[in-house]
Amino acid sequence: MSSDLWQRCCERLAAEMPEQQFNTWIRPLPPGTVTTAEAGPVVSVRVPNRFKLDWIRNQYAPRIESLLADLAGCPVKLELSLAPREAPPVNHRPVLATAGAGPVPAAQAYNGAAPARAAAAVAAPAAPAASNPASRSRLNPSLTFDTLVPGRANQMARTAALHVAGAPGQMYNPLFIYGGVGLGKTHLIHAVGNALLADRPDARVLYLHAEQFISDVVKNYQRKTFDELKAKYHSLDLLLIDDVQFFAGKDRTQEEFFNAFEALLAKRAHIIMTSDTYPKGLADIDERLTSRFDSGLTVAIEPPELEMRVAILIKKAEAEGAVMPEDVAFFVAKNVRANVRELEGALRKILAYSRFSHKEINIQLAREALKDLLSIQNRQISVENIQKTVADFYKIKVADMYSKKRPASIARPRQIAMYLAKELTQKSLPEIGELFGGRDHTTVLHAVRKIGSERTKNTELNQQLHVLEQTLKG
Ligand SMILES: Nc1ncnc2c1ncn2[C@@H]1O[C@H](COP(=O)(O)OP(=O)(O)OP(=O)(O)O)[C@@H](O)[C@H]1O
Question: Can you state the subunit structure given in the record (predicted)?
Answer without folding.
Answer: Oligomerizes as a right-handed, spiral filament on DNA at oriC.
